[in-house]
Amino acid sequence: MSPRLDESHTRIATSTPPPEQLDHPIDPLALFEGLPEIPPYDEIGPVDARALSKTLFERLEALEEGTYEYSYVRNTLVELNLALVKFAASRFRSRSEPMEDIIQVGTIGLIKAIDR
User: Fold this and answer.
1) Integer Cα distance of 100 and 108 in angstroms
2) How many CA atoms lie within 13 A of 42 on its CB side?
3) What's the rounded Cα separation, in Å, for the pair 84 and 81?
């Protein structure tokens, strides 16, 4: 497993109220404190992607839907797993459908799966 995913970098994130409900301004960098450092998605191997996805799914369950942290973790999961969608779409290359359409349908399925 990657050193970025060890227990020292996997603290549970807490949700914050929307900025209009706060008395003080939000520091955008502070919102993502405690989240593991995520390298560029094309540099993550399948084993690390699986471990990071597991960590992010655990974090997603702990967060309240509609918060900035929830959106960040959800979007990170989508981007992290786009390579899997492209791999699965490549298996349908021989079909008469354009590749972009197959990837789009796969991405929609990925988003629905993450939201479950």
Assistant:
1) 12
2) 1
3) 5
Q: Name residue, tokens 């191997």.
A: 45
The angle at the Cα of 100, spanning 113 to 65, to the nearest 5 degrees, equals 30
Contact present, 51 and 5 (Cβ < 8 Å): yes
pLDDT, tens digit (0-9, with 9 covering 90-100), for 13-25: 555 555 555 555 5
Q: What pLDDT band is residue 33 in, cutting at 50, 70 and 90?
A: low
Q: Which DSSP string do the residues of 35-74 spell out, in sequence order? A: SPP---GGG--HHHHHHHHHHHHHHHHHSPTTSHHHHHHH
Question: Whose CA is closest to 14, among 74, 93, 70?
Answer: 70
| φ and ψ at residue 72, rounded to 5 degrees | -65, -50
Residue 71, CA distances (Å) to 1, 75, 88, 93, 102 in order: 26, 6, 25, 32, 25
Cα–Cα distance measured from residue 8 to residue 21, given in angstroms and rounded to the nearest whole number:
31
Inform me whether the pLDDT recorded for 44 exceeds 90.
Answer: no
pTM over 0.85: no
